[in-house]
Amino acid sequence: MIIVNFAHPLSKEQLHQVETLARQPVEKVIEVHNQINSQEPLEGQILEMVDKAGLSPEEWQNAPILVNPPSLNYSAVMVIADLHGRMGYFPACLRLRPVEGAIPPIFEVAEILNLHAIREKARLRRVTMISQKGAE
């Protein structure tokens, strides 16, 4: 599995947690610098940022990729939108959380978010709601 990391570098412990949750080895971590200039339009900066991952269109579409999105919310949503276009589906993403009581702050991998599965469930709920409205 390839991790494309748009956030802080992942520790060996976090990578081990990812492997445990994903039940597969991390073969490569691609670190992508994610600093943006808030005074400039975001779209071009995000396109450039994602391009820096250096993956080919075939890799984006076929490789087992896990994404650690940027922490900045509007950067994260634009990265996910861009990746959906490149990959043809929503990528799975890491969710990190602070370890309670850790000084200095330490973050652990909380879960892997399967955004594509979440989208599919939402579509089913939409269809169900439409069917129920039509039955009324």
What are the salient characteristics of this protein?
single chain, five-stranded mixed beta sheet, about 140 residues, alpha/beta
Task: Report on the architecture of this protein.
The chain is an alpha/beta fold. It has one domain (2-135). Helix content is 46%, strand content 20%. The protein is built from five helices and five strands; from the N terminus they run E-H-E-H-H-E-H-E-E-H. The chain has helices at 12-22, 42-51, 57-62, 73-87, 115-135, and strands at residues 2-5, 28-31, 65-68, 92-98, 107-114. The protein has a five-stranded mixed beta sheet. Helix 1 links the parallel strand 1 and strand 2 (28-31). Helix 2 crosses helix 4 (73-87). The longest helix has 21 residues, at 115-135. It is globular. The model has no long low-confidence stretch (mean pLDDT 93).
In N-to-C order, the SSE pattern is EHEHHEHEEH
Strand content: 15-25%
Largest beta sheet: what is the strand line-up? Answer: 2-1-3-4-5
**How many helical elements?**
5
Number of strands: 5
Given the helix and strand composition, which structural class is it? alpha/beta
Mean pLDDT: 93
Poorly predicted tracts of residues: none
Rounded Rg: 17 Å
Assign a percent range to the helix content: 40-55%
